[in-house]
Design brief:
The protein is an alpha/beta fold. Helices cover 37% and strands 9% of the residues. It has a six-stranded mixed sheet with strand order 3-2-1-4-6-5.
Protein backbone atom coordinates (compact mmCIF):
# COMPACT_ATOMS: atom_id res chain seq x y z
CA UNK A 1 0.00 0.00 0.00
CA UNK A 2 1.16 3.55 -0.75
CA UNK A 3 0.36 6.59 1.38
CA UNK A 4 -2.85 8.37 0.41
CA UNK A 5 -2.58 10.78 -2.49
CA UNK A 6 -2.54 14.56 -2.19
CA UNK A 7 -6.12 14.94 -3.41
CA UNK A 8 -7.56 12.83 -0.59
CA UNK A 9 -5.45 14.64 1.97
CA UNK A 10 -6.52 18.04 0.67
CA UNK A 11 -10.23 17.17 0.71
CA UNK A 12 -10.32 15.78 4.25
CA UNK A 13 -6.82 15.60 5.73
CA UNK A 14 -7.69 14.36 9.20
CA UNK A 15 -9.94 11.51 8.13
CA UNK A 16 -7.64 10.65 5.23
CA UNK A 17 -4.69 10.22 7.58
CA UNK A 18 -6.76 8.15 9.99
CA UNK A 19 -7.78 5.89 7.14
CA UNK A 20 -4.15 5.65 6.07
CA UNK A 21 -3.02 4.70 9.58
CA UNK A 22 -5.76 2.09 9.86
CA UNK A 23 -4.81 0.55 6.52
CA UNK A 24 -1.11 0.59 7.40
CA UNK A 25 -1.79 -1.17 10.70
CA UNK A 26 -3.77 -3.86 8.90
CA UNK A 27 -1.12 -4.45 6.25
CA UNK A 28 2.16 -3.85 8.07
CA UNK A 29 1.43 -3.73 11.80
CA UNK A 30 2.37 -7.37 12.39
CA UNK A 31 5.60 -7.38 10.40
CA UNK A 32 8.87 -8.19 12.15
CA UNK A 33 10.40 -4.91 13.25
CA UNK A 34 13.31 -4.87 10.74
CA UNK A 35 10.89 -5.52 7.86
CA UNK A 36 8.55 -2.84 9.16
CA UNK A 37 11.36 -0.30 9.29
CA UNK A 38 12.46 -1.22 5.78
CA UNK A 39 8.95 -0.65 4.43
CA UNK A 40 8.56 2.65 6.26
CA UNK A 41 11.95 4.02 5.27
CA UNK A 42 12.25 2.78 1.70
CA UNK A 43 8.75 2.12 0.36
CA UNK A 44 6.11 4.06 2.25
CA UNK A 45 7.89 7.35 3.02
CA UNK A 46 11.27 7.35 1.25
CA UNK A 47 13.10 10.56 2.15
CA UNK A 48 10.07 11.80 4.06
CA UNK A 49 10.39 10.08 7.44
CA UNK A 50 12.69 10.67 10.41
CA UNK A 51 13.33 8.75 13.59
CA UNK A 52 13.07 10.84 16.75
CA UNK A 53 15.29 9.65 19.58
CA UNK A 54 16.06 10.91 23.07
CA UNK A 55 19.15 8.67 23.27
CA UNK A 56 17.67 7.61 26.59
CA UNK A 57 17.43 4.44 28.63
CA UNK A 58 15.88 2.23 25.93
CA UNK A 59 17.01 4.06 22.80
CA UNK A 60 19.83 1.74 21.79
CA UNK A 61 17.51 -1.02 20.56
CA UNK A 62 15.61 1.05 17.99
CA UNK A 63 18.73 2.91 16.90
CA UNK A 64 20.53 -0.39 16.36
CA UNK A 65 17.59 -1.75 14.38
CA UNK A 66 17.62 1.42 12.28
CA UNK A 67 21.34 1.08 11.63
CA UNK A 68 20.79 -2.42 10.26
CA UNK A 69 18.20 -1.14 7.79
CA UNK A 70 19.55 2.32 6.88
CA UNK A 71 22.27 3.94 8.98
CA UNK A 72 21.99 7.11 6.89
CA UNK A 73 18.33 7.75 7.77
CA UNK A 74 17.52 11.05 9.51
CA UNK A 75 17.56 10.87 13.31
CA UNK A 76 16.28 13.92 15.20
CA UNK A 77 17.68 14.51 18.69
CA UNK A 78 16.30 17.41 20.71
CA UNK A 79 18.94 18.85 23.02
CA UNK A 80 16.88 20.86 25.51
CA UNK A 81 20.09 22.23 27.03
CA UNK A 82 18.90 20.71 30.32
CA UNK A 83 19.97 17.15 29.62
CA UNK A 84 22.33 15.00 31.67
CA UNK A 85 25.91 15.09 30.47
CA UNK A 86 25.73 11.30 30.42
CA UNK A 87 23.00 11.47 27.78
CA UNK A 88 25.06 13.70 25.51
CA UNK A 89 28.05 11.39 25.81
CA UNK A 90 25.84 8.33 25.28
CA UNK A 91 24.56 9.90 22.06
CA UNK A 92 28.12 10.10 20.75
CA UNK A 93 28.78 6.51 21.83
CA UNK A 94 25.79 5.15 19.92
CA UNK A 95 26.46 7.28 16.84
CA UNK A 96 29.98 5.88 16.62
CA UNK A 97 29.01 2.32 17.52
CA UNK A 98 26.17 2.08 15.00
CA UNK A 99 27.72 4.23 12.26
CA UNK A 100 24.77 6.61 12.20
CA UNK A 101 25.36 9.46 9.75
CA UNK A 102 21.99 11.23 9.80
CA UNK A 103 21.75 12.41 13.41
CA UNK A 104 20.62 16.03 13.65
CA UNK A 105 20.81 17.85 16.98
CA UNK A 106 17.86 20.21 17.44
CA UNK A 107 18.14 23.14 19.86
CA UNK A 108 15.52 25.47 21.36
CA UNK A 109 15.03 28.83 19.66
CA UNK A 110 17.18 31.43 21.48
CA UNK A 111 14.37 33.98 21.18
CA UNK A 112 11.94 31.59 22.89
CA UNK A 113 14.41 31.07 25.72
CA UNK A 114 15.09 34.79 26.06
CA UNK A 115 11.38 35.52 26.27
CA UNK A 116 10.10 32.69 28.45
CA UNK A 117 13.14 31.42 30.34
CA UNK A 118 15.87 34.06 30.49
CA UNK A 119 17.28 32.72 33.76
CA UNK A 120 16.99 29.05 32.82
CA UNK A 121 14.82 28.34 35.85
CA UNK A 122 11.39 28.01 34.24
CA UNK A 123 11.31 24.30 35.13
CA UNK A 124 10.95 25.27 38.80
CA UNK A 125 7.55 26.90 38.32
CA UNK A 126 6.09 25.82 34.97
CA UNK A 127 7.26 22.49 33.62
CA UNK A 128 4.67 22.45 30.83
CA UNK A 129 5.92 25.68 29.29
CA UNK A 130 9.52 24.64 29.85
CA UNK A 131 8.96 21.39 27.94
CA UNK A 132 7.05 23.31 25.30
CA UNK A 133 9.78 25.77 24.40
CA UNK A 134 12.70 23.40 24.90
CA UNK A 135 11.32 20.23 23.32
CA UNK A 136 7.90 20.50 21.66
CA UNK A 137 8.51 23.60 19.54
CA UNK A 138 12.02 22.62 18.38
CA UNK A 139 10.82 19.17 17.34
CA UNK A 140 7.76 20.51 15.54
CA UNK A 141 9.98 22.85 13.53
CA UNK A 142 12.45 20.07 12.77
CA UNK A 143 9.65 17.83 11.50
CA UNK A 144 8.62 20.29 8.80
CA UNK A 145 9.14 18.56 5.48
CA UNK A 146 8.57 15.07 6.88
CA UNK A 147 5.31 13.19 6.33
CA UNK A 148 5.97 10.64 9.06
CA UNK A 149 8.16 10.06 12.09
CA UNK A 150 9.32 7.03 14.03
CA UNK A 151 9.32 6.80 17.82
CA UNK A 152 10.51 4.27 20.38
CA UNK A 153 7.36 4.23 22.50
CA UNK A 154 6.15 0.93 23.95
CA UNK A 155 2.80 -0.10 25.40
CA UNK A 156 4.29 -1.26 28.68
CA UNK A 157 5.78 2.15 29.50
CA UNK A 158 2.65 3.72 30.97
CA UNK A 159 -1.13 3.50 31.14
CA UNK A 160 -1.40 6.30 28.57
CA UNK A 161 0.48 4.10 26.07
CA UNK A 162 -1.27 0.79 26.80
CA UNK A 163 -3.36 0.87 23.60
CA UNK A 164 -0.57 2.18 21.36
CA UNK A 165 -0.83 1.25 17.68
CA UNK A 166 2.12 0.68 15.38
CA UNK A 167 0.78 3.38 13.05
CA UNK A 168 -1.15 6.37 14.35
CA UNK A 169 -1.92 9.96 13.41
CA UNK A 170 -0.29 12.86 15.22
CA UNK A 171 -0.59 16.49 14.17
CA UNK A 172 -1.08 15.94 10.43
CA UNK A 173 1.60 13.26 10.21
CA UNK A 174 1.78 9.51 10.46
CA UNK A 175 3.61 8.41 13.59
CA UNK A 176 5.21 4.97 13.56
CA UNK A 177 5.85 3.01 16.76
CA UNK A 178 7.83 -0.08 15.66
CA UNK A 179 8.40 -1.27 19.24
CA UNK A 180 4.82 -0.78 20.40
CA UNK A 181 4.30 -4.42 21.31
CA UNK A 182 7.81 -5.16 22.58
CA UNK A 183 8.07 -6.23 26.21
CA UNK A 184 10.75 -5.38 28.76
CA UNK A 185 12.06 -8.92 28.38
CA UNK A 186 12.23 -8.65 24.59
CA UNK A 187 14.16 -5.39 24.81
CA UNK A 188 16.63 -6.84 27.30
CA UNK A 189 17.13 -9.97 25.24
CA UNK A 190 17.79 -7.95 22.08
CA UNK A 191 20.25 -5.68 23.87
CA UNK A 192 22.11 -8.66 25.31
CA UNK A 193 22.18 -10.55 22.02
CA UNK A 194 23.68 -7.57 20.20
CA UNK A 195 25.83 -6.42 23.12
CA UNK A 196 24.33 -2.94 23.07
CA UNK A 197 25.88 -0.41 25.46
CA UNK A 198 23.43 0.70 28.18
CA UNK A 199 22.80 4.30 29.11
CA UNK A 200 25.17 4.87 32.07
CA UNK A 201 22.39 6.28 34.26
CA UNK A 202 20.29 3.11 34.14
CA UNK A 203 22.63 1.38 36.58
CA UNK A 204 22.25 4.36 38.90
CA UNK A 205 18.48 3.92 39.23
CA UNK A 206 17.18 5.89 36.24
CA UNK A 207 15.03 3.57 34.05
CA UNK A 208 13.49 6.57 32.28
CA UNK A 209 15.67 9.57 31.50
CA UNK A 210 14.70 13.07 30.49
CA UNK A 211 16.04 16.47 31.49
CA UNK A 212 18.27 16.54 34.55
CA UNK A 213 16.16 18.88 36.75
CA UNK A 214 12.97 16.87 36.20
CA UNK A 215 14.28 13.30 36.36
CA UNK A 216 14.62 11.44 39.65
CA UNK A 217 15.79 7.97 40.60
CA UNK A 218 13.12 5.27 40.75
CA UNK A 219 12.80 2.93 43.71
CA UNK A 220 12.44 -0.85 43.20
CA UNK A 221 8.84 -1.70 42.38
CA UNK A 222 7.94 1.80 41.21
CA UNK A 223 6.63 2.55 37.73
CA UNK A 224 9.65 3.07 35.44
CA UNK A 225 8.45 6.61 34.67
CA UNK A 226 7.77 7.51 38.32
CA UNK A 227 10.93 9.59 38.39
CA UNK A 228 9.77 11.89 35.61
CA UNK A 229 8.34 15.15 37.03
CA UNK A 230 8.04 13.45 40.41
CA UNK A 231 5.26 14.84 42.57
CA UNK A 232 3.42 16.36 39.62
CA UNK A 233 0.47 15.10 37.59
CA UNK A 234 2.54 15.53 34.44
CA UNK A 235 3.43 12.25 32.71
CA UNK A 236 4.48 13.36 29.19
CA UNK A 237 6.77 16.11 27.95
CA UNK A 238 4.27 17.05 25.26
CA UNK A 239 5.80 15.81 22.02
CA UNK A 240 3.41 12.85 22.01
CA UNK A 241 0.31 14.89 22.83
CA UNK A 242 -2.05 16.52 20.28
CA UNK A 243 -1.04 20.05 19.33
CA UNK A 244 -3.85 21.09 17.01
CA UNK A 245 -5.18 24.56 17.62
CA UNK A 246 -1.98 25.93 19.08
CA UNK A 247 0.58 28.05 17.30
CA UNK A 248 3.97 26.86 16.09
CA UNK A 249 5.61 30.26 16.39
CA UNK A 250 6.45 30.03 20.07
CA UNK A 251 3.11 30.83 21.66
CA UNK A 252 2.12 27.19 21.65
CA UNK A 253 1.39 24.28 19.35
Amino acid sequence: MAPLDATALALDPENALRAEAQALNAQYGSLPTPDLLDHVLHRLYPGRVALVSSFGAESSVLLHLLSQVDRHAPVLFVDTQKLFGETLRYRETLIARFGLTGVRTILPDPDDLATADPQGSLWLRDTDTCCHIRKVLPLERALHGFDAWITGRKRFQSSTRAALSVFEVANDRIKVNPLANWSVETLKAYAETHDLPPHPLVAQGFPSIGCMPCTDRVAPGEDPRAGRWRGAEKTECGIHLPTHGREIDGSGI
